[in-house]
TrEMBL record:
Positions of region (Jag_N domain): 5-55
Compartments it resides in: Cytoplasm
One GO biological process term: peptidoglycan biosynthetic process
The keyword Cytoplasm belongs to this UniProt entry's keyword annotation: yes
Ranges for domain R3H: 141-207
Keywords of the record: Cell shape, Cell wall biogenesis/degradation, Chaperone, Cytoplasm, RNA-binding
Primary role: A probable RNA chaperone. Forms a complex with KhpA which binds to cellular RNA and controls its expression. Plays a role in peptidoglycan (PG) homeostasis and cell length regulation.
Protein name: RNA-binding protein KhpB
Gene source species: Halalkalibacter nanhaiisediminis
C-alpha cells in the first residue's frame, strides 16, 4: 500500500492533490491529517500549509474475488469465478465441470455463508458499502422457482382446509420470495414467526375470506 504525503493551503486542497496524484477517487482515498494549516504573522511569516498522509483503499470487488479464489481452493473445488456487474451489486458466478453441491450446501446454506463472509471482507474498510452476491450454475433462480411453486401449493391447501401451514425456517431473502409470491393470492396471508435461524413463514387463511364464506352459508 503506497502512502503519499501531500500539502496544500487547506485540507480540501491537499485531499484534491492526493486524489489526482494517486489517480483515484475521493471515496477510495483514506488519509490522516499530519498538520493543520496555520496563518502566520500578517498572513505571511510563520504560516504553515495543511499536510495529509494519504493512501488508496483496496478495491472491495478485488478483495472479494481474491477471497473467493482462496476459499474455493481450500475447499478443493475446481471452479471458474465470473464477475458480473449489476445495477446495485456485483455478482460472482461459479461454474465447474464437477458437481458444485458442496459449494452450494443444503438449501444453499454454504453459499449463503460464503456470501456473508465475502461481504465482510469486501467492506472491512471505511467507505461506501459494496454489495456482493454469489451464485452457482443458476442456483438462485432454480431455488426461487422451487419456493414459488411450494408457496402456491401450500396456499391452495390452506384455502381448501382453512388451516394454517408453517413452512421450514428460511433466510430473509427466501422468506421475501414466499411473501411476494402470495401477496396477491386471495384467501391467504403470510406471517413470519421465530427468531434467528428458526424464523419461518406461516401461511394462514385470510380472516376476511373466512368471514365471507361464513356469511355466504
Amino acid at each position: 500500500m503506497t502512502h503519499l504525503t501531500v500539502s496544500g493551503k487547506t485540507i480540501d486542497e491537499a485531499v484534491a492533490k492526493a486524489v489526482n496524484e494517486l489517480q483515484t477517487t475521493k471515496e477510495r482515498l483514506s488519509y490522516r491529517v499530519v498538520q493543520e494549516p496555520q496563518k502566520g504573522f500578517l498572513g505571511i511569516l510563520g504560516s504553515k500549509p495543511a499536510m495529509i498522509e494519504a493512501h488508496v483503499l483496496p478495491d472491495p470487488v478485488e478483495l472479494a474475488y481474491n477471497f473467493l479464489n482462496e476459499m474455493v481452493s481450500l475447499m478443493g473445488i475446481h471452479a471458474t469465478i465470473t464477475k458480473k456487474e449489476q445495477r446495485q451489486h456485483t455478482l460472482f458466478d461459479f461454474s465447474s465441470e464437477q458437481e458444485l453441491g458442496r459449494l452450494i450446501g443444503k438449501r444453499g446454506q454454504t453459499l449463503e455463508s460464503l456470501e456473508y463472509l465475502t461481504n465482510l471482507i469486501a467492506n472491512r474498510q471505511d467507505g461506501a458499502y459494496t454489495r456482493i452476491e454469489l451464485d452457482a450454475e443458476n442456483y438462485r433462480e432454480r431455488r426461487k422457482q422451487t419456493l414459488e411453486q411450494l408457496a402456491l401449493r401450500v396456499a391452495d391447501k390452506v384455502s381448501k382446509t382453512r388451516e394454517p401451514v408453517p413452512l421450514e425456517p428460511m433466510n430473509a431473502l427466501e422468506r421475501k420470495i414466499i411473501h411476494t409470491a402470495l401477496q396477491h393470492i386471495s384467501g391467504v396471508e403470510t406471517v413470519s414467526e421465530g427468531k434467528g435461524a428458526k424464523r419461518h413463514i406461516i401461511v394462514m387463511p385470510h380472516p376476511a375470506s373466512e368471514k365471507s364464506s361464513i356469511n355466504i352459508r
